[in-house]
Amino acid sequence: MVPFILLVLCFAAWGAAANMTDPLVKVFSKIFTMSSVQSALVQFSYYGAYFCLAIPAAYINKRFSYKTGVLTGLGMAAIGAFLFYPASQAMTYGFFLVALFVLAGGLSILETSANPYVMGMGTKQGATRRLNLAQSFNPVGTNIGVFLAATLILPKLNTATSGERTNMNSEQLTSIISAELDAVMVPYVGMACVLVFIWLAIAFTKTPNFCKQKKVSKHVEFSATFKRLFKNTHYRFGVIAQFFNVAAQTCVWTFTIQYVMEALDTNEVTGGSILQYSMITFLVSRFVMTWLMGFIRPAKLLMATSIIAMLLCFYMVKMPNISGVWALVSISACLSLMFPTIYAISLHGLGDDAKLGAAGLVMAILGGAIVPVFQAVFIDTYSVAFSYVVPAGCFIIVAAYAAFDLKTKVRVFNNVAPC
């Protein structure tokens, strides 16, 4: 139980980091007076790091162990979070992007290691539900992350508009930016301290026999494994679905504050509060979905929630008012089960290839780096409300994968000879 609980803390930790980052798109666009596309580089840097570090993480897991991967990821993430202090002193956007890249790179290694680690802590039949249980604590972290951003960062943004900032002298502007960046830095440095604490706890905890991995050869056959994975249609489609799932999730939450401000003609603080409501919905719904999986096939739930999320996005486009805002919050209930469910059903039956297969699914998080930039273009060209056609399209692809999984499993079941 102790290793499982410590891993649950890791799930919460990267949830907090990811969702403290979502408001930074709006924060940096105001601090550095940038367009939506420029500020969306926050997510490009964050999720791009997930793509770049997933393969090294898979190598660590296969060459050493999942525990080594978890410790490596926690250490690198702590360093990235500590880098927010010199970034706040340098007061340059590029330095913050570097800090985010290092932080997210560590979280990429952590996530690539922790997810299959949890799946291996029990029977294969219960792997999907067990991963959903562990992932249920991820939104605990997301709520903490949004709360920290809403209380420590957003209220401390100066009310001066971009036009007013342009007319300020350099001394006034530097003083305002310095105070705002200090507010950004504080929660990240605090998170770094928490990550160091978790690292020490895991490092000095003895792993029980049921969690130990079998000894593997020092030679890692990447080429042969990738060929097997690429030929596996079910896994390949799973990676594509995960790409668009993460893209949709990032799009929905990254621009929540902007949508609320446009729909209700309000400020960033109110937008942050709505984002907090979304995270609470996500948290409660994750536990509800895990319970429902005891009665309903995960793929059926995945297909149903994907279709509902798509319809809610189209409703938001047509109704950019208070009802559209509540539709936006409701999408988080649908998102709650998507990542761990796609992850688990994609890796089902892969055996030892799951170690590299997990890397492919984490690399699919690149969707969170690329697609929000396209949504930002829609925002700059049209409106925030209209831009939600982008995540709607992503949900269609996730629903298609769920339908494919249901069809594939039925075909396999029907072809099995009776005992």
TrEMBL record:
GO terms for molecular function: fucose:proton symporter activity. GO terms for cellular component: plasma membrane. The keyword Cell membrane applies. InterPro entries: Lfuc_symporter_FucP, MFS, MFS_trans_sf, MFS_TsgA-like. The chain crosses the membrane at residues 44-61, 68-85, 91-110, 131-154, 185-205, 237-261, 301-317, 323-344, 356-379, 385-404. Its main location: membrane. It comes from the Bacteria. It is a multi-pass membrane protein. Keywords: Cell membrane, Membrane, Transmembrane, Transmembrane helix. It is found in: Cell inner membrane. The keyword Membrane applies. This is MFS transporter, FHS family, L-fucose permease.
